[in-house]
Design a protein that fits this description.
The chain is of the alpha+beta class. It is built from 6 helices and 22 strands. α1 packs across α3. 29% of the residues are buried.
């Protein structure tokens, strides 16, 4: 359990607390917790170590929280104090084949969070009880993971493919297990009437998860969810997904979180994941383009939003050139027709004149 910032807690509680805990009861509980720790008997024998160094703070935690939830932290404080004093006193070191090393009890009896009272500290390593895991036995293996934040956001998470590939998404929570069956599961969802339509969980697609600690993982998504580089196939400039995490391959799932992957080149998305096409941009075949961008394979086509935001447009110069070419072609045809007509008329005139001349001779 994490230590609470005492400044954030109400200072209104006095003795006895609303729950009936007296100052004497709190002190006894804190001291008993220290005395029951296996390492205490060793620390008591070290000169300069005060095994009750954290008791006052422990009692204050009890008063402020009206509970014993934070009592175990008094042992952590005592352990840290004992370890620091012992390491500074080299006269306590043991000779190990010519090398002087700290007393062995520091390795044998100091475990993370005293194994959360759910296991035994053996040679500095927690041997957890059935149903619990993690370095400090704090992970309840019977519960699905919990998700707190995604990409540092508590609500609807956003990922911009202009800033990162969005294939590796940070998920912070608790109860993540370092096992082969740790997975993320997603489904692409659609928006309707400012709400996300959630599909049947049987349609979830599993993807690998990279374990960092029991409080953080990375979901590894395929790059085809949203793409920024135009290709021959239809692309996707934004996609919203419902994502879950499981420790058992999908048998028990965390609560879902919503993630929108988008291309900020043409999409503006708000904190709820609702996206709109930006001004002076185009979304063509699922890819983002800025005003004036050329078709990758045809220099006569451009993104011209004032003409069409969703299809390629003939560039203005090309339109003018085409019109001029057509005009010149038509003009040439007319000129050729006029010249041809003139030649034909001259030929007929000459032929007629020749016939008249022959009749006059006869």
């Amino acid at each position: 359990m994490q230590m609470r910032d005492r400044r954030s807690l109400s200072d209104a509680h006095t003795w006895p607390t609303p729950g009936g805990i007296t100052q004497e009861m709190a002190t006894n509980q804190c001291q008993t917790t220290v005395l029951n720790a296996p390492i205490t008997e060793y620390c008591q024998a070290i000169p300069g170590v005060d095994v009750f160094i954290g008791v006052d703070g422990c009692v204050e935690d009890v008063r402020l929280t009206d509970s014993y939830d934070l009592v175990s932290l008094v042992v952590s404080e005592m352990e840290a104090h004992c370890e620091a004093v012992t390491l500074r006193n080299v006269s306590l070191y043991n000779n190990d084949n010519g090398s002087y090393v700290p007393p062995s009890f520091l390795r044998e009896y100091i475990c993370p969070q005293q194994c959360s009272n759910r296991g035994e500290c053996v040679q500095g390593v927690c041997q957890c009880e059935q149903g619990f895991g993690g370095a400090d036995c704090s992970v309840d293996l019977t519960r699905p993971p919990s998700v707190w934040t995604v990409e540092g956001t508590e609500g609807h998470a956003l990922c911009d493919i202009r800033e990162t590939t969005c294939q590796s998404i940070s998920v912070v929570g608790e109860n993540f297990r370092n096992c082969e069956r740790l997975k993320c599961h997603y489904e692409v969802v659609e928006e309707m009437d400012n709400a996300w339509l959630l599909e049947d969980q049987s349609n979830l697609t599993p993807v690998d998860a990279f374990f960092m600690s029991y409080r953080e993982i990375y979901c590894l998504f395929p790059e085809t969810i949203a793409e920024r580089n135009p290709g021959n196939m239809e692309g996707v400039s934004k996609a919203t997904m419902r994502v879950h995490v499981s420790n058992d391959g999908g048998e028990t799932l965390s609560e879902g979180f919503v993630l929108t992957i988008h291309d900020s080149r043409c999409q503006h998305c708000d904190i709820n994941g609702y996206c709109q096409l930006k001004e002076n941009t185009c979304e063509i075949n699922g890819y983002c383009h800025l005003s004036g961008d050329y078709h990758p394979n045809d220099s006569l086509l451009q993104c011209l939003p004032y003409k069409d935001k969703y299809n390629w447009s003939m560039r203005d110069e090309a339109s003018s050139s085409t019109g001029m070419t057509v005009g010149l072609t038509i003009g040439c045809v007319i000129i050729v027709a006029i010249v041809a007509g003139t030649v034909i008329a001259f030929w007929f005139h000459k032929k007629s004149t020749s016939k008249i001349a022959n009749l006059d001779k006869d």
